[in-house]
Amino acid sequence: MKSTNWKFFDNTKDLLAFIVSEYGSEALFARKYLSDHTSPMLPQGQKNLVKQAYDCGIVKILQNNMDSDQKQKLDAVKKATKKLIDLMYSHEIAERVVWEFTNALGWGNTAPQNDNPVQTQPQPIPAPPPTVPIPGLDSLMMRAWLFAEDGDWQEATDYFNKILDIDPKYAPAYLGLLCADLKVAKEEELANIKNAVVILGHKQYKRATADPEIKARLDGYVQTIKDGLEKALTVLRERFDPKKSELQKPKNEGEYYKNPDKIRVHLDGIDWLALDELNGKVLLISEKVLERKEYHVGGSAITWEQCTLRKYLNGEFLDKLDTINSIIIEIQNDNPDNPWYQTVGGNQTKDKIFLLSLNEVCRYFGDSSAKLNKMGSTGSDCYIEDQNNKNRIAEDESGTVSWWWLRSPGGGIDFGSGTSCVDMDGCVRVASYVYNDTRSGGVRPAFWIKLY
Fold first, then answer.
1. CA distance 120 to 316
2. CB 18 within 8 A of CB 37
3. Read out DSSP for 283-342?
4. 153 contact partners, CB below 8 Å, separation of at least 6
5. Nearest to residue 141, comparing CAs of 123, 125, 159, 155?
6. Quick one: pLDDT at residue 4?
7. In the chain, which stretches have pLDDT less than 70?
8. Region label for 119, one of left (φ > 0), alpha (ψ between -120 and 50) or beta (otherwise)
């Protein structure tokens, strides 16, 4: 047996030919050789198809006819092809996979085992179907997209892979796999994907864009996603343009929220509300509660600087905002002590994504600063409740009202060292839930972006 360096194969034909050339024809009937030399670069659909060839007895049929004459070999080919057709594979696919085995075995050049000199020239083993055009390919594509429209993503994926069994370089099928993986029922819906990088970084993107026409279409969808960012920035620039007197920043704090439709923007698939503007920078906060998380995993009192929620927001969550990541500004946040209970707020922090503080939530959702600055008391007066409650109420994506975290410390005799929050009725809890509260609070991320 020869020793050789393992190789990578992008099609079954070359893999089978390699096994026979290195180890002999008998090796083709030992399934382990296929496993040893099949690389991740061999398309999954082809791996599955060859596996079926062993499981349903096709390889055994060929093995039993290794010493047969040409006519018997042709009959064996027909019998093996029918086996795959009976398993619901198309004639084209069945014929191709059987041919790949017989081609590796050299059957196409084998003379009939017959001593009769008058015997007519035997017919060669049929060659594989041509790569382009392929009969029945369009119907398979149609079936695949119908499954996608029905939301049957696994069936759609299986059919796109069947197409690649016929033609491993068929770019439209790779586009189909991309759509099925992203759960997109129609190609044009790719323009609605939240982040352009989801398309550009997909494993099937390179193979799909080998076709110039597909590349042009995908580039168009990506550009549409990017144009959404520019559109949102235009809305904000118009709203905060200091040259337009009717759009100048209102004098009263929180006045933006009296006209929320003028300052709502859609970025990375999320609706954001503009709270403030300063020197060409705008403060945004999610309109809805995006998820629920513990303020700190570990069950101990801790400041914003050290909590696990801050780490998550400036890491995993930030990475999701691919479209606007480059215009988010890192700022230095003050973290003052709790004004009522003097609970320590901790050091200043440099953040890209953060939660609002007590001061900020009482400033931007209608001015409740006077009540915050007035010393509260324990018990029933541990929260701020006023006419601005309605502005602070937030729902999650399902429409359920949720309480949401602030980054400032809470505190008080009855509450211990906790974290402040906004309750479901919109009141601001200055003394609030403890850090290890099992009822994870709602998260409304905030950040500053540059307009120019």
1. 72
2. yes
3. EEEESSB-EEE-S-TTSS---TTT-HHHHHIIIIIHHH-TTTGGGEEPEEEP-PPPTTT-
4. 147, 180, 181, 183
5. 159
6. 46
7. 1-11, 32-49, 87-90, 108-136, 241-262, 299-300, 375-381, 412-417, 433-439
8. beta
Rg (CA), the chain: 33
Please give the C-alpha separations between residue 125 and each of 24, 67, 100, 101, 128, in angstroms, as whole numbers. 20, 15, 11, 11, 9
CA 18 distance to own-chain centroid: 37
Query: Which residue is listed with tokens 């070999």?
Result: 73
Kindly tell me the burial class for residue 334, based on how many C-beta atoms sit within 10 Å of its own C-beta (0-12, 13-18, 19 or more). exposed
With both helix axes pointing from N to C terminus, report the angle between 153-166 and 137-149 in degrees, rounded to the nearest 10: 160
Domain boundaries, the chain: 12-109, 137-227, 270-450
pLDDT given for residue 36 in this prediction: 58
Cis ω before 133 (30° cut-off from 0): yes
**Can you tell me the distance from the alpha carbon of 93 to that of 165, in angstroms, rounded to the nearest whole number?**
7
The predicted structure's pLDDT at residue 393:
95
Using alpha carbons, list the distances in angstroms from residue 311 to 16, 183, 315: 51, 30, 6
Residues 293, 311 contacting (CB under 8 angstroms): no
Strand 281-286 relative to strand 446-450, pairing: antiparallel
Tokens of 4: 């050789």
Question: Which of 323, 321, 308, 392 lies closest to 352 in space, CA to CA?
Answer: 321
- Joined together, the tokens standing for residue 81 give 């092809």
Q: What is the pTM of this model?
A: 0.57
| pLDDT one-digit tens code per residue, 149-193 | 999 999 999 999 989 988 888 999 999 999 999 999 999 999 888
Q: Fill in the DSSP letter of residue 434.
A: B
**Cα distance between residue 33 and residue 291, in whole Å:** 49
Give the pair of three-digit tokens for residue 9: 């194969």
Q: How many CA atoms lie within 13 A of 384 on its CB side?
A: 29
Structure tokens at 355: 């939660």
End-to-end Cα distance, the chain: 69
Distance CA(337)–CA(325), nearest Å, equals 31
Could you confirm whether domain 137-227 is CATH 1.25.40.10?
A: yes
**Where in 124-216 does DSSP place strands (E)?**
none
Q: How far is it, in rounded angstroms, from Cα 307 to Cα 292?
A: 15
Q: How far apart are CA 314 and CA 29, in angstroms?
A: 55
* Residue 146 CB burial class (10 angstroms; 0-12, 13-18, ≥19): middle
Give the residue among 388, 396, 397 at the shortest CA–CA distance from 425: 388
Residue 447's φ and ψ, nearest 5 degrees, are -165, 165
